[in-house]
Design a protein that fits this description.
Elements: H1 2-25, E1 41-44, E2 47-50, H2 51-54, E3 55-61, E4 64-69, H3 75-84, E5 91-94, E6 99-102, H4 108-142, H5 149-182
Antiparallel strand pairs: 1-2, 3-4, 4-6, 5-6
Helix pairs in contact: 1-4, 1-5, 4-5
């Protein structure tokens, strides 16, 4: 029973770390990256649809992304969604078939804003991991009557080690992203 609680907690924490890394990838660096548009939602015939489902994304040059819609009627909606996207600062232009998005050069001030944004996202991810730990601790406390006190103490130590490892993984990903953002 204790092993089940710890295994489930480990899986949930792994997913939280992966979600944090995915979240970090949506913050732009100096290069154009299709990951920036992964979570971009487009109003397509009245419903909010992810851009990745409406178009293919390519990067022919370091600061340019080419968006090729599968349905040409979605061109204007995609262009508007990219223009309205926060933290991109991109100005898309279309030629009737594709949309070219040229990413502006990042200033030092803008890089520092992005570092703050990434740190906030990292802190949110750590809070989520700690919330998972708290729930697992409650689950372990519920097993108190069924297992011995020693086993419970050992399980809590394992839980703390698991939490520490996942928080460290988030910190490591955060450090890599900060270095990537500040690299000129």
């Amino acid at each position: 029973m204790i092993a089940d609680v710890l295994a489930e907690t480990g899986e949930r924490m792994d997913r939280a770390v992966e979600a944090a890394k995915e979240d970090f990838s949506t913050v732009r660096t100096g290069r154009a990256n299709p990951q920036l548009f992964q979570k971009l939602m487009v109003d397509y015939y009245g419903s909010s649809t992810p851009l990745a489902q409406l178009a293919s994304l390519n990067t022919p040059e370091a600061r340019t992304i080419v968006v090729t819609p599968y349905d040409k009627s979605a061109l204007k909606a995609i262009e508007q969604a990219i223009r309205d996207a926060p933290n991109l600062g991109a100005n898309p232009g279309n030629d009737g078939n594709i949309i070219r998005v040229t990413m502006p050069e990042l200033t030092q001030e803008r890089r520092k804003e992005y570092v703050k944004l990434v740190r906030t996202k990292g802190e949110d991810a750590k809070v989520h991991v700690r919330g998972i730990r708290r729930k697992a601790k409650d689950d372990l406390d519920a097993l108190k009557s069924e297992v011995g006190e020693d086993e419970l103490v050992r399980a809590e130590k394992e839980l703390d080690a698991l939490t520490r490892a996942h928080v460290d993984a988030i910190d490591e990903a955060l450090k890599r992203k900060e270095a990537e953002l500040l690299e000129v």
